[in-house]
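Summary of Year 1 activities. Much of the first year was spent building the evaluation harness for sequence design. The harness presents a backbone, in tokenized form, and records the residue chosen at every position. We chose the following record to illustrate the format because it has been used consistently in internal testing since the harness was completed.
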């Protein structure tokens, strides 16, 4: 599968310390190095056998185990869902800087599923990550999108990446009822992309990211998704969509508020 990924133009693997029952790194190390050496590795630390945590000593131990398991230092090491231990974010970021400086990763960053939970713990003194990974695509709510953009503004990472462009379920009937190609430029629509290809193309603009992590077990599916990186979302359509999404969010909040009120007797 990795050979097929290379043939399709994939340049990086996204994994994590805890994937595959904490065996993902050693499994990668067992693959022919002539293949894996041609791929950059992004991995994540933060989940441990007992629980999630951001203690600097546990992050350091995980980074050492990562390098040993992979047989190499990863190009990128990310804090994995730090919102689960958000009060410890500042110390964790300082620890990640030390890990990079000690040569245990090429660069460091943050991967967050719920960026709103981190906003109260980021200030001017928070170390600037090289990479920030957030959810992207048409299934992401207004609240998550705006929180992700606020976090980007505060942290100012060198690179923003996306994840979960299909909401975790590419077979969801949603993709048969909604045509993501409507969000693309006329030139991109003219190539008649498959719906999941179009959805991935749009994901690069919601919010704006430079790369998107996707998972698949089929080489043909991967090749199709790689072609989607050439598709372009239409800025005006995306702007109108974001306006409608914000209005829907306000209406939903107002409805929820009214539902909690009792009529006077």
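For this record, the design step produced the sequence shown next.
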């Amino acid at each position: 599968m990795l050979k097929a990924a290379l043939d399709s133009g994939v340049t990086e693997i996204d994994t994590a310390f805890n994937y595959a029952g904490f065996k993902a790194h050693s499994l990668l190390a067992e693959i022919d190095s002539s293949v894996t050496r041609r791929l950059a590795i992004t991995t994540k630390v933060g989940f441990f056998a007992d629980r999630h945590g951001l203690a600097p000593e546990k992050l350091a131990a995980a980074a050492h185990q990562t390098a040993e398991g992979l047989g190499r230092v990863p190009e990128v090491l990310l804090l994995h869902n730090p919102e689960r231990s958000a009060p410890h974010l500042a110390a964790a970021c300082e620890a990640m800087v030390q890990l990079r400086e000690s040569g245990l990763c090429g660069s460091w960053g943050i991967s967050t599923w719920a960026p709103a939970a981190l906003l109260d713990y980021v200030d001017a003194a928070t170390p600037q990550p090289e990479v920030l990974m957030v959810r992207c695509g048409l299934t992401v709510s207004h609240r998550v999108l705006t929180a992700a953009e606020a976090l980007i503004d505060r942290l100012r990472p060198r690179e923003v990446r996306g994840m979960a462009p299909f909401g975790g379920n590419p077979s969801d009937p949603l993709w048969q009822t909604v045509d993501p190609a409507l969000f693309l430029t006329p030139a991109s629509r003219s190539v008649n992309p498959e719906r999941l290809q179009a959805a991935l193309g749009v994901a690069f603009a919601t919010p704006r990211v430079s790369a998107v992590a996707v998972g698949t077990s089929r080489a043909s599916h991967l090749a199709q998704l790689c072609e989607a990186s050439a598709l372009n979302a239409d800025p005006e359509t995306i702007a109108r969509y974001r306006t409608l999404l914000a209005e829907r969010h306000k209406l939903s909040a107002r409805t929820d508020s009214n539902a909690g009120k009792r009529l006077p007797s």
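The longest strand covers residues 40-45. Quantitative recovery figures across the full test set are reported in Table 2.
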